[in-house]
Amino acid sequence: MGTAREVFGDALPIAERYAAFLAKDGVERGLIGPREADRLWERHLINCAVVSSAIPQDAQVVDIGSGAGLPGVVLAIVRPDLRITLLEPLLRRTTFLNECVELLGLRNVEVRRARAEDVMEEFAVDVATARAVAPLERLARWALPLLRPGGELLALKGERAAAELEEAEPVLKRFGVRSTELLQVGRGMVDPPTTLVRVVAGREEVVGRRQRAPRRAKGSRKRSS
Ligand SMILES: C[S@@+](CC[C@H](N)C(=O)[O-])C[C@H]1O[C@@H](n2cnc3c(N)ncnc32)[C@H](O)[C@@H]1O
């Protein structure tokens, strides 16, 4: 538990409540495999929490395909400065996520029931995260239109990270991404460290927003002609 204390700090009691909810309700309701209950901290909570080191202060984040809240709920616990939308199409899962938000008292989280590709016009966030949602080639097509220019996709990937990055090259080129990078976070805290693919979005007109209406500032009125 030493590492968990180091990673979660003062938020450890909230992380423990989440772990208990996952181990009981998450397993009973089929959101997490029964075998995962015994290895929740190492493979899920700590593995996801260390991603926070790659996210800037006060960032607006969308977690694509949150499932039972990984990594989105964990990031919300460890980083209350972030504003996080948990994007998840399945009702059973959004119900679980809303229960998590209430149980854990997370004020910085919103749950949105939708597929990423159906809500491109609604988001222009700093960071999109995703774990175990789709191969990078498909994930990039869903995630890049949700980012502001210069925003970042952080995809948690396993051993095939480099291969997926190579396979996604034509799509990334078409979207005019600024840069890509493979990085490892959490070395010494989780074994193996979490592998991230970071993809930095290019200019607005090449991330799939050509058709979108100009964004109005919050609170501004529509001008009457
Ligand atoms: C294998 S689960 C992974 C859940 C979680 N990220 C994790 O690591 O435990 C994949 C999740 O992606 C969601 N998903 C699938 N297609 C999606 C899409 N087009 N947009 C957003 N979420 C999607 C599924 O409903 C599911 O909850």
Model description:
The chain has 225 residues and is α/β, with parallel strands linked by helices. The protein has one domain: Vaccinia Virus protein VP39 (Rossmann fold), CATH 3.40.50.150. 34% of the residues lie in helices and 20% in strands. It has helices at residues 2-8, 12-28, 40-49, 72-78, 91-104, 136-143, 161-167, 169-174, and strands at residues 60-64, 83-87, 109-112, 125-131, 147-157, 179-185, 194-200. A 7-stranded mixed beta sheet has the order 3-2-1-4-5-7-6, sandwiched between helices. α4 links the parallel β1 (60-64) and β2 (83-87). The radius of gyration is 18 Å and the shape is globular. The N and C termini lie far apart (63 Å). It binds S-adenosylmethionine. S-adenosylmethionine is lined by residues 64-68, 70, 87-90, 93, 115-117, 131-133, 142. Specifically methylates the N7 position of a guanine in 16S rRNA. Belongs to the methyltransferase superfamily. RNA methyltransferase RsmG family. Its EC number is 2.1.1.-. Pfam families: GidB (PF02527).
